[in-house]
Amino acid sequence: MITGGEFYKVMCAMAPLYFAMFVAYGSVKWWKIFTAEQCSGINRFVSVFAVPILSFHFISQNNPYKMDTMFIIADTLSKLMVFVLLSLWAVLFKSGGLDWLITLFSIATLPNTLVMGIPLLQAMYGDYTQNLMVQLVVLQCIIWYTLLLFLFELRAARLLIRTEFPGQAAGSIAKIQVDDDVISLDGMDALRTETETDINGRIRLRIRRSISSVPDSVLSSSLCLTPRASNLSNAEIFSVNTPNRFFNGGGSGTLQFYNGSNEIVFCNGDLGGFGFTRPGCGVSPRRLSGYASSDAYSLQPTPRASNFNELDLNGTGTPVWMKSPVAGRIFRHTSSPKMMWESGQRHVAKDTMNVPEKEISFRDALKMAPPSTAAGGDASMEEGAAGKDTAPVAAIGRQEMPSAAVMVRLILTVVGRKLSRNPNTYSSVLGLIWSLISFRWHIALPSIVALSIKIISDAGLGMAMFSLGLFMALQPKMIACGAKKATMGMLIRFISGPLFMAAASILVGLKGSRLHAAIVQAALPQGIVPFVFAREYGLHPDLLSTLVIFAAVAWEAGKPLVMEEVEVAPPQKHEVRIKILFTSLCHTDVYFWEAKGQTPLFPRIFGHEAGGIVESVGEGVTDLQPGDHVLPIFTGECGDCRHCHSEESNMCDLLRINTERGGMIHDGESRFSINGKPIYHFLGTSTFSEYTVVHSGQVAKINPEAPLDKVCIVSCGLSTGLGATLNVAKPKKGQSVAIFGLGAVGLAAAEGARIAGAGRVIGVDLNPKRFEEAKKFGVTEFVNPREHDKPVQQVIAEMTDGGVDRSVECTGSIQAMIQAFECVHDGWGVAVLVGVPSKDDAFKTHPMNLLNERTLKGTFFGNYKPKTDIPGVVEKYMNKELELEKFITHTVPFSEINKAFDYMLKGESIRCIITMGA
Ligand code: NAD
Ligand code: ZN
C-alpha cells in the first residue's frame, strides 16, 4: 500500500500538472482571459514545439543499450494480445468492424504515459521507473501510434473506395495513385478521384485534392456524390454525408425501402397548404443534389455512434422519455448552457398515445443505415458494434476492395506523408539517434543546447497539461459521449487495460515494483495522441475526449461530475455554434409547445427568434466566423438550389422551414443531449438555450453595431409581417389594407403598409386591448369580429365599398384566414396568409371567390431570403426607417421565460425579449 510519504511524493508530481490544467481551465471558463483563437494558438505551440521537444528530451535521455527487455516485451505482448483479440473479433463477428477495433485498441492500450505516467511513476516508485516509462513512450511513438495511423488511413481508404466504387467495381482497381499534395484521406481536405479503365477492364485510380470544381477528364467522378449513376457500377452512389437520415426519400431504388414509412411519418397529407414537407414526401433528388454539389467530399462526419442507438438498448425499444413524456414545463436552471423543454401537458400525453405508428416509423427511420452504407453492402462504417450487418441491397452485390497489395501501397504512402509532416516524428527519431550516439560514446549535449531543450521541455510538460485544461474548458460539457459510453470506456481503460498488462507481465515474469509500475501505467488516463487522431479522423472523438478528461477530473477532485447541463455538441460540417444573447417568444413556439403543430417531438428546445454571436464554426463554413453578430433564422438559404437562384422564392430546397425535423440536416442527429439522451431541435434554431447549433445557411450575419436586444425580433416576427406586406401583398400608394391579428407579426405588416404608403389600414382582432397599441403603428380603423353579428367579410366590404385592396392574415386562425381572403375586393384584391394553422385545419371557400379575380397567397418569412435580405432589414432599423422599440413591450430574464409564455397567452405582450445572460 502507499504510505503517507509516498502519497505526498505522488502529489508533488501530480499537483503541479493539475495546477497547470486548472489555471488553463479557469482562465477560459471563469476568467475569460483567452479567446478561442488564442487557445488554438497555445495548442499549436504545444503541438509544434512543446510536445516534440518534450519527446526529444525524454527519448534522448533513455539509454537504448540498456532497455529493460522484459518490461518492453510485457508491454508489447499486452498490446498485441488486445490487438489480436480485437482483430479476431472484427473478422469473425461482423459486428466488430474496423471502427471499433481502432477505438477500443486506443482505449485499452494507449495511456497518457508521457505527460502523466513519467512524473507519477517516478514519484511512486523512484527514478528508475522514469527510464521504464521513457522506453514505453519511445515504443508508443515509434510503433503504436504509427500502427494507429495506419489503421485510421486504412479505414479512410476503405470508406473512400466503398463510396466511390460500390459493389464489385473496386475489385478491378489495379493501381492507386495519390497526388503529392494529398497528405491524408482523413477528410480534412476535399478529395476527388479520377479513373481510367484499360482494355482489360482494370482501373487506375487517381486521388486528388479537389481544388477546382471542374473535373479535368470526362471519366472523373467528383466525390461530391450526387445521386447519379456511376459510370463504373451502374449503381446509384451517394455521398457519405448525404444529409438527413430523418427523412431520406426520393428518387432512388436504394432508398425505396424506407420511403413507405416516411410517408406515414412525415407527410401528414391532410394539409397541403401546411406542407412544410412536400406532398411528394421528403427530399426530392434535386434537393439532395443541391446540397451535395456544394459539399466537398469528407470522411469526417463518419456516421458516428448515434445517441439514438442507445434507445435500442432499453428492452422495449421505447425511448425513455416516450415512456414518461415530459409533462408540463420543466425548466432547468443550471449554470452552463441552459435550456428548457416544454410541452403542453394535455397534448403530449394525448398525442403520444395517438401516434404510436408514427413513433415506430420515426424510430425505424433513425435506425436506417445511411444510403452509402446501404449501397455499399457492408455495414462496418456504420456503427459497427451495433451489429448492423444489414445492407440488403442485392442489386449491387458484395462490396469488394482492391487487392491487398494495392491497398497497402496506398496506405503506406499516405501514412508516410502524414508522419513526415509531424514534428514529433522528427524529434523522436532525432532523440533516438542522439541517444544511440551519446550513450555509445558517452558524450553529452553542450550545456547551452541541453538547457535550451530543458527549458522548453519543462514548459512543454506544463503546457501540455495547460492545453488539456483549455480543451476541457472549451467543451460545452465534460462528458461529451454520454454516460453509458463513458462508463464502457472507463471500464476498458481502467480495468481491462491494466488486466491485459498484468496478464502479459506475469506471463513474461515481471515481479515487484516493475510489475506494479507496469500495471499502474496501464491504468493511467487516456493518452492525448489517440484522441487527436480520433478527432482528426472523426472516429468516436467524443468517447476518447471523455476518457482524457473524465479521468483527469475524477483524479483531481474525486467528485461525481455534474451532468445536469445540456450538452451542446460542436458544430459539424456547414454548421455554426451560436451563443444566444437575446431571444423572444413568437406564437409559433407556443403552437408547437402546445403540440398543436404537427407530430409532437419532445423533449425539444424551442425558440427561433433570437440574436447572438458565433462561438465556433464547423468544417466548410466560410462566410461566418467566431465573433460575428448573427440572427438565426427558421428558414434558410443554401445559395445553390433553384429556389435560392430564383428571385421570387425563399423556399430553399435544402433549408426551408421544416417543423418535423428534430435533428440537424447533416447527419439527422441532435446536437443537444442530456446524459446522452438526445433533445430535439426546433426549426433548426432552438434558441431557448445559451448555446445552439444552426446550419450556416440559416444564419444571417448582421451589422455588429446593431443592438441585438432589439434586432433579434427581425429574425422572425418583424420580417415576416413586414415582408408579407412589402414583398407579397404589395399595396399601391393610397390603397386600403386589412390586417387580421394585431400581434407582432400583424403590427409589422401594418408597419409595412405605412412604409408602402397605404391609405386606410384596418386592423381586425378579437382582443380590444390591441387597438390602442396598434394606433402607434398607423392602424386607422378597427374591427372586432365579436362586436358584429354579420360576418367580418361583410363588415369590411361595407366599410370599403366592396372590399379592401389588400389583406394580410396574421392570426393562425383558420376562420380569420377565410375571412381575410373573402374580404378583398373582386377584380384585383390580394390576400396573404401568414399565420400558421393548426394540424387539421382546412381552408374552405367557394371557388367563385377566386374566379371573381381575387388572389390568395401565402408566405413564410415575408418572402425574405434570410441571408441575402435580412442584413438589409437590420440596416433599415439602423437608418431609422424602421422602428423596433415599439414592438418590445416586455423583457424577462431567461430564468423567468415562463412569464413570456403567460404574457403571450394572455395577449398582453407584443414581443417579450428574453435575456439569456440574466
Ligand atoms: P400573437 O399571438 O402575438 O398575435 C396574434 C393575434 O391574432 C392576437 O392579437 C389575437 O388576438 C389575434 N387573433 C387570434 N384569432 C383571431 C381571429 N379569429 N380574428 C382576429 N384576430 C385574431 O402572434 P404573433 O407572434 O404575432 O404571430 C401571428 C401568427 O403568425 C401566428 O400564427 C404565428 O404562428 C404566425 N407566424 C407565421 C410566420 C410565417 O413565416 N408565416 C412567421 C412567424 C409567425
Ligand atoms: Zn436553397
Question: What brief labels describe this structure?
Answer:
918 residues, seven-stranded mixed beta sheet, six-stranded parallel beta sheet, elongated, binds nicotinamide-adenine-dinucleotide, binds zinc ion, alcohol dehydrogenase, metal-binding, transmembrane, zinc
Ordered list of secondary-structure elements with their pairings:
Layout: H1 4-29, H2 36-61, H3 69-92, H4 97-109, H5 113-125, H6 128-164, E1 173-178, E2 191-197, E3 203-209, E4 228-229, E5 236-237, H7 256-266, H8 285-292, H9 320-323, E6 329-331, E7 340-342, H10 345-354, H11 356-367, H12 371-376, H13 404-420, H14 423-441, H15 447-474, H16 483-508, H17 512-522, H18 528-537, H19 541-557, E8 567-568, E9 575-584, H20 587-593, E10 609-617, E11 629-632, H21 642-645, E12 672-674, E13 677-679, E14 691-695, E15 699-701, H22 708-711, H23 717-729, E16 737-740, H24 744-756, E17 761-764, H25 769-775, E18 781-783, H26 792-799, E19 806-809, H27 814-822, E20 830-833, H28 847-851, E21 855-858, H29 866-878, E22 888-893, H30 897-905, E23 911-915
Parallel strand pairs: 1-3, 16-17, 16-19, 17-18, 19-20, 20-21, 22-23
Antiparallel strand pairs: 2-3, 4-5, 6-7, 8-12, 9-10, 9-14, 9-23, 10-11, 11-15, 12-13
Helix pairs in contact: 1-5, 1-15, 2-6, 2-14, 2-15, 3-4, 3-16, 4-6, 4-16, 5-6, 5-17, 6-13, 6-18, 7-11, 16-17, 16-19, 18-19, 23-24
The protein binds nicotinamide-adenine-dinucleotide and zinc ion (ZN).
The site of zinc ion (ZN) has 9 residues, from helix 21.
GO molecular function, one term: zinc ion binding
Keywords: Auxin signaling pathway, Cytoplasm, Membrane, Metal-binding, NAD, Oxidoreductase, Transmembrane, Transmembrane helix, Transport, Zinc
Main location: cytoplasm
